[in-house]
Amino acid sequence: MNFIMIKPFIILFNILLSIGISFHPIHLSVCEMNYNQETKGMEIAVKVFFDDLEDAIVLSGGPELHLFTEKEHSQSDQLILEYLQKNLQLTINKKAVKLNWVGKETDERRDIQSLWVYLEVQDVRKVKDLQVKNTILYDVHQDQRNMLHLKCNGKKVSWLFDIEKISETIHW
Questions:
Q1: Which of 64, 50, 59, 62 has the alpha carbon at shortest distance from 20?
Q2: What are the pLDDT digits (tens) for 142-168?
């Protein structure tokens, strides 16, 4: 699926987030991946709705997170990382790789419904092939969609994952 077909989803997602609705009828996450040749790392940014991510953690047996409040759970970063490691799996050059925590943030002035989580994969000398398995929030919503934009080796691709299509592979 090319970016032109996915662009309306991005626009709608950003409109819903910008008006600050308290309930969101669309269940969508966005993931951006960029291979950085200088640092030899895969940089990953995942945008998800707060409530869906917190529900996923609770459904997996974890505690309430209360993200970005004074009651935020002391292990929230670790719990989010573990959830994403389980539900966003990368195989680079036929080898499963580990996602490492970089951080998380939200823009309280513009977007109180979602957050960005930043991850990375270190020590990736060259990417010959990449397989992505994305099941983020499928345990929360059957109609969940996960958009992924990849920049690697001079190529840009976008994929849309759903409960029936959970993985994609690209070769260079």
A1: 50
A2: 999 999 999 999 999 999 999 999 999
